[in-house]
Structures are given as structure tokens and as C-alpha cells.
Amino acid sequence: MSTATRPGPRRDQSPSALRRARSAVVALTTSSPARFAILVFTALILITTLLLTLPIARAGERSGTPLADAVFTAVSAICVTGLSTVDMASYWSPFGNVVIVVAMQVGGIGVLTMASILGLIVARRMGLRAKLLAASDTNPSRVHAGPVSESQAVRLGEIGTLLATVAMSAIIIELVITALIVPRLLLEGFDPWSAVWQGFYLALSAFTNTGFVPFDGGIARFESDPWMLGVLSIAVFLGAIGFPVIFALARWVKRRQRLGVHAQLTLATTGILLAIGWVAIGALEWSNQATLGGQEPLNRPLTAFFTSMMSRSGGLSTVDIGEMNGSTLMVLDMLMFVGGGSASTAGGIKVTTLAVLFLAAYAEARGVPDMEAFGRRVPVDVLRLAVSIVLWGATIVATATIIVLHITKEPLDRVLFDVISAFATCGLSTGLTGPDLEEPAKYVLAATMWAGRVGTVTLAAALAASERRQLFRRPEERPIVG
């Protein structure tokens, strides 16, 4: 009598845990790009925090980093902010510095771009929705139901090229900036290894608009050095204009393809704000002996220009921001709140958001129904996104300012400045952030950095994706405005 063996389970009927996890990630990636981006960034912050709390991450100490400082530094690095509650030049060990460098590099890539890369790795393919995920980091309106001008940023068929451009442009720019910085550090007295390591650290910090400085004395030692300040300004500018603009400029150089409205608005608005900040800072601080007034007259324009550039999101400074006049702090508040370009390493509400608001105001003043820029019509749904982003940013800043004011009892101008710097991921500080900052305030500012880096992008993508068609329109009635 023969005995029959029970057949084992077929592989396709009982998928492995890895396959189930991969399927879950694919489903989340394609169904909710914004939610997936938030999960990715939050997970990266938690991992970085865990690594920074290890005793090996702290220099000269057997005990680990306090949780509040580890969280604050992790969020500041991943969100490429640059604010710090510890001395970045001496607090961290080589292991801790490597963790921070990796966090800055990952954070500088971008929320949705990073999420799309991880989704592509896990899913091993890139379908239409996954391409929309990557494209949303260059233009949230791309997931809108209506027509979108593909010349603004990058076509869906070029998403693979976009991801390669993001990675390669970041690496190439950082290496070039490092090569320009290292000789200057050698002349300053750094040994070769320190010059290379700290030069790369500083180049990465500048291009990602983070603002961490790895050596004692900060950038103040180079306050009269046009070479160093010029190189750092170029790095910050390239990081702040955004990868879509870099991509568009590369296509213009190769094929003389017309720059889209997004690229032209970004470059024009960036130049205007840089010039306004340069003139305002120079005029308001010219006689302030604690800042520009204490420098040689020929050096003051350089400092004013560098400060204007850094206020866009760079976070580096050659003067004590806390010693500036209240009027200057207000100018910097406005520049920081605007920030840099969309899909860039900079923060803020973005320069194109401000440009769209001004285009709307200009159209209203002229009495014309359409917003126009560079021979193109800007649709109304873009204005709705811009207004939503500004209100979202103002709400975050107001809420965080009230809470930090209540906790610290510090003057309003100092608190408001550091809160806006946190929201806009700028990194400039009046001195509020530091070892003496109360732990609850550290967590509030960390949450503000997270919301500023993740919130505006994902909100724009979520709003653009949430618009649905309906077969009716309600009766119109105009409220009184103004």
C-alpha cells in the first residue's frame, strides 16, 4: 500500500513576507505619493536620531547625545536647515560627522525625489504613477487633471533622466566646489586630510543650503575673502534654484530649447530678491559697528551681498546676526520666508509662489482676467496652490512663534527670526538656538523644520491631486473683500 505525500504550498499561493512588503510599498507609492514622502522623510529622521544618540557619535564622551539634541540635529540635517543646539565643530565624533554628512546628502535630494528613488528600488519598475511621484517634486501641478506645460520642468518620459540628473548634478557640483575650497583651506593652515574632508563637508553644506560649518570660528574667518565667499555663494545659488531649473538650463545649453515659465520666473525673482536684500542690508547695517560698520568700507558690500545670498536658505554668515538692527532682521525674515526655488535644496514658500501672487495682483490692477508671464498664461489653479502654500506657511510660523515665545520669554524679533529660519530651513540664528534653549522649544523648532521642509511640497502635491470633477456648479455670490 503506497502512501501519498501531501503536496507543499505553491510559491505563488503563499507569497513571502518580502514580497508582501514590496507589494505594500508599491501600493502606497502609487496611491499616495505625498503620504509616502512623509513616511520616508520621517523614517530617515528617526534612523538619523538613533545613530546620533549612540555614544560613538559623540566626541570624547562615553555617554550618548541627549535625545532633544539628537532629534534637533537629525531634523536639521535631513531637512537641510543648519540650526544647531550644539557646537558642530567639536561636539561630534568622526562617526557622528559621517552620519550628518549622509543625512545632508539624502535631505538635499528632495522629499518626493527620494521617495520615488526608494519606491523604484523596491518595486523594480517605474510605471506612470511612479513617474508622477518623481515629477511631483519638480512640479506638483503635474498630477492635476488639467493640461500642464511640459516645458516648465521635465517630461514624464524623461523621469529616469531627471533622477540621474539630480544625482549626478549634485555629486559633480559638490566635487567642483570642494576642489575650489580645498586650496584655500590649505593656505589657511589646514593639514591636507582636514582640508579635503572639511572642504567637502562645507561644499555639501553650501550646495544643500544646510549651513553647518565643520571647523572652529565658522565662516567669519573668511569675511574679507572674495574667493571663499564667492565660491560658497555660487554653491548656495545652484542649490537654491532647484533641479528643474538646472535640468532646463542643461537642455538650453545642449539644444537651445526655450526656457519655460518656471525657469524664467525662478531666475528672475531670485535675482530681484537678491538685489533687494543686498541693497537693504548694506543700507541698514552700514553704520552698525557690531556688523558691517566694524569692517573696512570696501568689504561691507561683499558682506551685505553674502548675507543676502545666505538669507535665501544658505544659513552661513560672516557677522553676528543677533547684533543686527531690528529693521534688518525684518528684511531677513521676509527673504527667508520666501526661500529658494521649487524642488531645490532651499526652503520657504518658494520664489515662484511669490511671483505668482505678484502676477495675480498685477493682473487685478490692470483689470485683465488672466495672469501672464513671459508670453504665457498662468492658470488660476496655480494661484490657488500659491495662496494655500502661503497660508500654510504663515500658520506654521505664527503657531510655532507663539509657543516658543511662551516657553523662552525671549524678545519677539529674536524668536520670530529663528522660527522663520527653521520653517524656511535657512539656518541663520540670532543666538536663540543653542545649548541653553529649553528642551520643549527644541522639539517645537524641530517640528517647524520638518513641517517647513515636507509640508509645503506635500501640501501642493496633495491639493493638486485632490481636485475632482463635478457635474454641477453652485450659484455664484460675491462676498465683500477689502
TrEMBL record:
Any idea which GO molecular function terms this record carries?
Answer: monoatomic cation transmembrane transporter activity
Q: Which GO terms describe its biological process?
A: metal ion transport
Instruction: Write the record's keywords in alphabetical order, separated by commas.
Output: Cell membrane, Ion transport, Membrane, Transmembrane, Transmembrane helix, Transport
Which superkingdom? Bacteria
This chain's protein is named TrkH family potassium uptake protein
The subcellular location is: Cell membrane
Residue ranges annotated as transmembrane are 36-54, 66-86, 98-123, 159-182, 227-253, 265-284, 334-362, 382-408, 444-465
UniProt xrefs under PANTHER family: KTR SYSTEM POTASSIUM UPTAKE PROTEIN B (PTHR32024:SF1), TRK SYSTEM POTASSIUM UPTAKE PROTEIN TRKG-RELATED (PTHR32024)
